[in-house]
Amino acid sequence: MDILSSLAIVTLAGLVHASFQLSVSVLTLLSGHTIGAKRSHAKLLRLTSSFIFGTGLMTVLLLSFTSLVLLNIFGKNAPQLIWAMACGLMIGVAIAIWAFYYRHEKGTTLWIPRSMATYLNKRTKLTKLSGEAFGLGLSSVVGEILFIIAPLFISALVLIQLPAIWQLIGIVIYTLVSMLSIITVWVLIGSGHTLARIQQWREANKHFMQFTAGAGLIVLGFFVYVYQVLGSSVGVI
Amino acid sequence: MVQAVDIIKHGGSRPTEKFLRDKLRSSLVAACLSTKAPEGQAEAAADAVCDKVIIWLQQRPEVTSHDIRVVAARHLKSFHPEAAYLYEQHKITI
After folding, report:
1. Domain boundaries, chain B
2. Which residue in A has a C-alpha nearest to residue B82's C-alpha?
3. A106 in contact with B at a CB cutoff of 8 Å?
4. Where are the beta strands (DSSP E) in chain B?
């Protein structure tokens, strides 16, 4: 696979990752609690920046770790079976997103168990230090690992084929693109937009986001299957 | 003055507790401040909503915390719709 196609796949996978909402929900709550507790705007920016740094770092670590594991097991060229499995994983996760990602109730309640949601809510309320916000950012990425695993896995498979410098560039691209949604919310909060308007937008467009995340994964799965699995088979014949 | 009202916590997993006006007030003030309302306006709205919730509680020996949230949000809507929206959304954001 050439470098341009590889980076295009990584970018689309990053966009799918960006449409997952746990980090955005936690960031919205964190901002709400911080403003509601009459803390300064500088404190708000410190906490939210630390949170975003935490999500970015965890994304880098997860993608690097997955790539390293795949590289150690398969070397630079993973077998066709693994590519086919990755495509199956993407289709399966896409269907799961359409079916389960949002609960069928008011607000933007996600699939995560209610006990975990309550814990995150309490933890967010208790967050006063930048270090705590950083930890919250790390855990909000891990909390969505069941859905993130699909774009992460295909990105890792694509990245291990590339030369080392392009692998680094790919990791940076994936991380930045996957953080687009929280960076957007962070900028909106920092520039004075009210949380109510941000949350209203999220609630009004949640089904659209859910649909695009699932559709993005299906398109990606189909493309990779045709390009990497069928393309190689035809090439062999 | 409100009679002693038992508040049944969400899901019944935690023990009931007595209604505390200050606890309700501080959550309403926080919701108003989250929408960048001035502090005075936030406190005035919270006091007015607390009064209305207490009137609603007069005839009820026990209610759930969810009931209080719904009633408080309904009254807050007339003072500050954005704050009422955030107050409603607090438990259903994640």
Report:
1. 21-92
2. A196
3. yes
4. 6-8, 17-18, 62-64
